[in-house]
Design goal:
This protein is α/β, with parallel strands linked by helices. It contains 16 helices and 23 strands. Strand 8, helix 6 and strand 9 form a beta-alpha-beta unit. It starts with a strand and ends in a 17-residue tail after the last strand.
């Protein structure tokens, strides 16, 4: 049994709270590690360490801070296989998908090489008689990120890379379900030249989260997780005067128009619906074919594809389509929701509830499930399942499909598959969803754009990574300066105006 640690002040630190959580191998169901759960006192120690280290780091010029991230990216490439294996072993996703997890975080680190440009302010000379005005972007100080289990490499890097490049010190509270990779990332940042105390990893549960939200020295908090917890973090963090960005759940719709390339649409749905066993906030969980003929054709082609999914542990090879769910509780929740869909009248075209794999009977596996004729009042439509379940909701016309998507309380991602440019442009313009794909099923933007959902999928005014990442982790200071010119004008008692 491996005992994990926190990472504070540039070194591994054993937990002292006396509380731990079990870390499973989802493929076997076995407990392989224990992770400490921090007390408020342990969180205090990490914040104190970060607060002491941050001013010197902020004084380092942005170009030199960016060089640390350059070296970090080099080390990520060096250790890619090691990181992916550790990630797959604790999360359950396939090795190619685990490498994708690392790479999408690595790309944000690459974007942060541009910190010198992204931190530039503005300057106006002679704004008034002998007066110059300029603005500068400055770090907030100590900031924090609370990140989920489904992307244990990517989302921590989405948070700490721009924060650290901007001159902040960072407290990372990763998921206790798969904490090894975040600890490995902290080690690599140290190897890349980051000073001790600038990136601290504090493992924990709700007690650590509340300590972060209440700590007076933490100036900003970024969160990714379910919508109820996102709303809780946002409300409590804002009440304590912090800058907060929170990203919650999703129910992503993909509209399939009658003119769509059906082979392309089916390929997209299989990958976007069942990749990572559906444990993605950008997964497509609702397919909306327009017209009965479109729906019948879609189901005819989807059923054999879902039945043919290769489900296995990551060790079975790179051609595995999906692995297990992260915990037994996650598996059981998915099965309960599938049960509810059957009970509420949806047609279960492919039933993966009884999937079992020889030699891995205790693993947290669920086979691919495919529903047809789902309606919007069913639990499988209303709730984020976060599992390998795709619901087909038939729409009579394009406007019905758009209206359904717009009325859904979530607004993370959506997509339309069509050959009609007019329909695609109309959809992109009208839809009230934060990220939109046209013949692209998972429209996660590249690192130099920002990632963020609307409605119940996002809380806060600024998104993740891209330019918004630097805006979130800095604040603007505006300086108005006037140097003596030899002209003595005496006191001024009225508000200054242009003369």
């Amino acid at each position: 049994m491996q005992e994990l640690t926190h990472f504070i002040g540039g070194k591994h630190v054993k937990g002292s709270s006396g509380r731990t959580a079990e870390v499973f191998n989802p493929a076997t169901g076995e407990v392989e590690k224990r992770v400490p759960l921090a007390s408020p006192a342990e969180l205090d120690a990490a914040v104190a360490n970060a607060k002491e280290a941050q001013p010197a780091w902020a004084a380092v010029n942005p170009q030199r801070r960016a060089r640390v991230l350059m070296k970090f990216v080099e080390l990520l490439h060096r250790d890619m296989d090691k990181l992916a294996e550790a990630l797959s072993r604790e999360h359950g996703k396939t090795l190619p998908d685990a490498k994708g997890d690392v790479i999408r975080g690595l790309e944000v680190a690459e974007f942060c090489f541009g910190a010198p440009q992204l931190l530039k302010g503005e300057y106006t000379g002679n704004a008034g008689p002998g007066i110059d005005i300029y603005s500068i972007r400055q770090p907030l100080g100590v900031v924090a990120g609370i990140t989920p289990f489904n992307f244990p490499a990517m989302i921590p890097m989405w948070k700490f890379c721009p924060a650290i490049a901007a001159g902040n010190a960072f407290i990372l509270k990763p998921s206790e379900r798969d904490p090894s990779v975040p600890l490995m990332l902290a080690e690599l940042m140290m190897e890349a030249g980051l000073p001790a105390g600038i990136l601290n990893v504090v493992n924990g549960d709700k007690e650590a989260v509340d300590a972060i939200l209440d700590h007076p020295d933490i100036m900003a908090v970024g969160f990714v997780g379910s919508t109820p917890i996102a709303e809780y973090v946002y409300t409590r963090g804002c009440a304590n005067g912090k800058r907060v960005q929170c990203f919650g759940g999703a129910k992503n719709h993909m509209i399939i128009m009658p003119d769509a390339d059906m082979d392309q649409a089916v390929d997209a749905l299989i990958g976007a619906g069942y990749g990572a066993a559906g444990e993605r906030c950008m997964a497509i969980s609702v397919a909306v074919p327009v017209g009965e003929k479109t729906a019948d054709t879609l189901m005819e082609r989807l059923i054999p594809r879902v039945e043919g999914l290769k489900i296995a542990p990551y060790t079975a090879g790179n051609d595995v389509d999906m692995g297990p769910l992260v915990t037994a509780a996650a598996r059981d929740r998915v099965k309960r929701l599938v049960d509810s869909g059957v009970a509420q009248g949806a047609e279960l075209a492919v039933d993966g509830r009884d999937f079992a794999m020889q030699g891995y009977e205790n693993g947290f596996f669920v086979g691919g499930c495919l529903f047809d004729r789902v309606t919007t009042d069913m639990d499988i439509y209303k709730e984020e399942i976060f599992g390998p379940v795709l619901s087909v909701v038939r729409a009579k016309a394009y406007d019905d499909a758009v209206d359904m998507t717009m009325k859904n309380p979530y607004g993370n991602g959506t997509a339309i598959f069509t050959r009609d440019g007019d329909a695609a442009r109309d959809f992109c313009d009208r839809i009230n969803v934060g990220m939109v794909g046209v013949n692209v099923p998972i429209p996660v933007p590249l690192a130099y754009y920002t990632f963020g959902g609307w409605k119940a999928s996002g809380f806060g005014d600024l998104n993740q990574h891209g330019p918004d990442g630097f805006r979130f982790y800095t604040r603007t200071k505006t300086v108005t300066s006037r140097w003596p010119s030899g002209v003595k004008e005496g006191a001024e008692f009225s508000i200054p105006t242009m003369k």
